[in-house]
Specification:
By secondary structure, this protein is of the alpha+beta class. Helices cover 64% and strands 12% of the residues.
C-alpha cells in the first residue's frame, strides 16, 4: 500500500512526464499554442506537488503560501489553455477571480489562518475545473466523445478538491500548522493523478484533432483569396439537391488574361483579391463564395428567390466595377460577367445547376460582357443590359 508521500511523488513523476511529452509535441508543431500552455500548467503543478511533499516534511508559513499559490496558478494556466483551444478570448474572466483568490489566500495564510488558505485555494481550483468542464461541454463542436471525457475528468477532479475543502470546513480547521492529513486528501491525490494523466493524454488527442481540422481547412481554401475552393464546393454541395429557393451565380473576370499580360501577374492577383473582397461583403447565412480556379468564381445562395439571387449577383458585379487597382500604368478598373443557375421544385444536382450557370455565363460573354445573365421562362438566356458602375 502506497503511503501519502509515495502518492505525491507518483503525481509529480506523472506530471513531469506529461510536461516533457507536451513540450516535445509543441516543438514539432509550434502553431499548437494550447499544447504549450497545457505543458506550462502541468509544469507549475509538478512544482506544486514537489513543494507540497516538502511541506509535509517541514511545514513553514512562506512555503505554505508558495504551495497554495502554485496550485491555483497551475490550474489557472490549464483553464487558459482550454479557453485558448475552444476560442474564448476573454481570459480575464478566469484570471481576475483566481488572482483575487490567490491574494486573499496569501493574506489569511500570512495572518496564521493557513486552514482558511487551503479552503480558499481548494474552492478556486474547484471553480476552475468546473469552468473547464463546462466550456468543453457547451462550446466544443468537434468530436463530442473526446470533449465529454474531458468534461467528466475535470468534474471528477474538481469534486475531489471540493471534498478536501469541505472536510476542513466541517472540521473547523482554520489553523493547521502543517499539511492537511485526512481521507479526502488521499482520495484527491489518487483522483488528481488519474485525471491529470487522462487529461494529458486527451490533450494529445485534441492536438491531433485540431491538426486534422486545420489540414482539412487548408485543402478546402484558396490560398490567394481566402475563399473556399472547388473541392470545398463539392464537399459541401456535391450531395445536395438544389430546391426552388437555391441558386448559383458563376462569375468570370473580363479580359483577365490581358490584365496579366499588360500589368503583370502581381496586379492580376490584386484584382482577384479585390473581387473576393467584394463577394465577402455580401456574405450572410446561406451564402457561400468559392474560387473555382483562375479567374472563375461561384456564389451559392440558399433561401432566396431567383429574382433576389439575380439581383445580388448583379450588385456584386456593379460593386466590383467601382474597384480601382493602382498600377505602374495608372489606375485599373475591371469588370465581371456572370451567369445564373437555379434549383427546381423537384430538386436538381450540383452539376446540373453549375452547367446551367456556366451556359448563362458564356452567353453573358457573347453578349458583350459586364453583365449577369439568367435564363428566361422559355429556357433561353436573357442578356439584359450591361451592368452600370458608379
Amino acid at each position: 500500500m502506497l503511503d501519502f508521500s509515495s502518492l505525491l511523488l507518483a503525481a509529480a513523476l506523472s506530471g513531469a512526464c506529461l510536461s516533457v511529452t507536451l513540450f516535445a509535441i509543441w516543438f514539432t508543431a509550434p502553431r499548437a499554442r494550447f499544447v504549450l500552455t497545457v505543458a506550462c500548467g502541468m509544469l507549475v503543478l509538478v512544482a506544486h506537488v514537489v513543494l507540497f511533499w516538502r511541506y509535509t516534511k517541514d511545514a513553514g508559513p512562506w512555503l505554505c503560501q508558495i504551495v497554495l499559490a502554485l496550485l491555483s496558478l497551475g490550474f489557472l494556466v490549464i483553464c487558459l489553455s482550454a479557453m485558448q483551444y475552444l476560442g474564448f478570448r476573454d481570459y480575464r474572466r478566469a484570471a481576475v477571480p483566481t488572482l483575487a483568490a490567490m491574494a486573499a489566500c496569501a493574506i489569511v495564510t500570512y495572518l496564521g489562518f493557513d486552514g482558511i488558505g487551503f479552503q480558499i485555494t481548494y474552492a478556486a481550483v474547484t471553480a476552475l475545473l468546473a469552468a473547464i468542464g463546462t466550456m468543453f461541454w457547451m462550446k466544443g463542436d468537434h468530436d463530442r466523445r473526446i470533449l465529454l471525457v474531458v468534461s467528466f475528468l475535470s468534474g471528477a477532479c474538481g469534486i475531489s478538491f471540493a471534498l478536501c475543502g469541505l472536510v476542513l470546513l466541517v472540521q473547523g480547521q482554520w489553523v493547521l500548522g502543517a499539511a492537511p492529513e485526512n481521507w479526502a486528501e488521499r482520495l484527491n491525490t489518487v483522483i488528481a493523478v488519474a485525471c491529470m494523466t487522462g487529461l494529458g493524454a486527451l490533450t494529445l488527442s485534441l492536438h491531433h484533432l485540431q491538426a486534422q481540422i486545420e489540414l482539412k481547412a487548408e485543402t478546402m481554401t484558396d490560398p490567394l483569396t481566402g475563399l473556399m475552393n472547388r473541392r470545398a464546393l463539392n464537399e459541401l454541395y456535391g450531395d445536395r439537391s438544389f430546391g426552388p429557393f437555391m441558386a448559383i451565380a458563376m462569375f468570370d473576370l473580363d479580359h483577365f488574361k490581358t490584365t496579366n499580360d499588360v500589368f503583370g501577374h502581381p496586379v492580376g492577383d490584386q484584382v482577384l483579391c479585390r473581387f473576393a473582397a467584394v463577394i465577402n461583403k455580401y456574405g450572410r447565412a446561406g451564402v457561400d463564395a468559392f474560387r473555382l480556379g483562375g479567374e472563375e468564381f461561384a456564389l451559392v445562395m440558399s433561401r432566396v428567390t431567383p429574382e433576389k439571387a439575380h439581383d445580388m449577383a448583379s450588385r456584386i458585379g456593379v460593386a466590383f466595377g467601382t474597384e480601382i487597382v493602382a498600377t505602374h500604368r495608372g489606375p485599373l478598373r475591371s469588370s465581371v460577367s456572370g451567369g445564373m443557375g437555379f434549383g427546381s421544385a423537384a430538386g436538381r444536382p450540383l452539376d446540373e445547376v453549375l452547367a446551367q450557370a456556366d451556359a448563362a455565363l458564356y452567353a453573358a460573354k457573347r453578349a458583350g460582357r459586364n453583365r449577369v445573365i439568367a435564363q428566361d421562362k422559355t429556357g433561353q438566356p436573357n442578356a439584359g443590359p450591361a451592368l452600370k458602375t458608379a
